[in-house]
Amino acid sequence: MLHLLWSGGTGGLERAVYQLVREQLAGNNVSPSVLFPGPGGPYYDRLLELGCPVQALGLRRAWSPRQLTTARREMRGFDVHHFHAAEPLLMAASAACPGVARVYTHRGGSMDRAFRRQARFRLTGPLLRRSFHAFSGNTAHGARSGADLLGIDRDRFRVTYNGIEFSLLEPARPPQEVRAELGLATEFVFGTAAILKGWKRVERLVRALPALRDTGPVRLVVVGDGPERPRLTALARELGVESDVIFTGLQQHVADYLQVMDVFCLPSSGRESFGNAATEAMALGVPPVVFSDSPGLAEHIEHEQTGFIVATQAELESLLRRLIAEPETRRAVGRRARAAIRERYTLARSATAYEELYEAALARRDGR
User: Fold this and answer.
1) CA-CA 20 to 30 A from 93: which of 61, 65, 117, 344?
2) What's the pLDDT tens digit per position in 135-185?
3) How far is it, in rounded angstroms, from Cα 295 to Cα 110?
4) What are the residues facing 80 on neighbouring strands?
5) Which long-range contacts (CB under 8 A, 24 or more apart) does 61-70 make?
6) What is the DSSP letter of 279?
7) Residues 260/221, Cβ–Cβ less than 8 Å
8) Same domain? 102 vs 213
9) Which pTM value belongs to this model?
């Protein structure tokens, strides 16, 4: 079978697919290959190290007509094409390959109604309805959002949660070394890990800092980078908390930084479907905080047991004040979060769910 996504760059999608392929290579039921129409990147290199057949076409634009001819040539000879993103031209090339069962996994959440943002799904919807055989979402929220965006019956979508390779989450450095790098002593540390885009709403964390001034030393650690970073830096300066916010930039070993956080917050909107960083923090025993208008993230959490779900900025600030004062609550919730995630999101369980999805696609292709 062939996995298809745009590139092997750094991101939650690329990491999730890499871990799935890694598990499939270790089993006996699926023989995976990977095609990136765009550039390679870190996960391209890691797939090569695993011995996985992988190719990056190096196309510079998602709408390059070369996709139709170049990609189709590379897509022949597979039983299943598994798409992890909506790529109209690549999907058209797949539809031109006879005898293939086509699978699509929707890995996004809700989206605003702006035409430009939805154009990709308007184009791919008819193609998927006509030529694809099985559909999934990486959360129930992702499945609902995919069905809505693509005009496909919700009943045709399965839920296939991402699996996590827990051994890859082990920090590469001791916490004392990371704390020294960041200039941390005994402060309360809350933080996040994200591509810094507007819908990640990281400004909510910056805005929480002034409300925590009277609780003692507090630092915010932001792991990641993106177009919102200048605005976040300016906001911290405007609020007088610039010295309390630490931007680490992109990091290869995110777990090194997660381990020094007392609380992990992912304040994303409903555009987030799974939120790998939140589940990875939970797997390390860091208690998570998410917002109730992000249903995909809320799926991971039993409120007050394995994490916390807040509805407003005021609730976020009140919760952080409480968690600063209640270290044992933080530790207890973190322990339960770790146990729940490590039971629910195993790679074996994810790989089995995808094998069942492939079988359903093959049966539908064959009219069974």
Assistant:
1) 117
2) 999 999 999 999 999 999 999 999 999 999 898 899 999 999 999 999 999
3) 10
4) 101
5) 62/6, 62/37, 62/38, 62/87, 62/89, 63/88, 63/89, 64/89, 65/89, 67/37, 67/93, 68/92, 68/93, 68/96, 69/93, 70/37
6) H
7) yes
8) no
9) 0.89
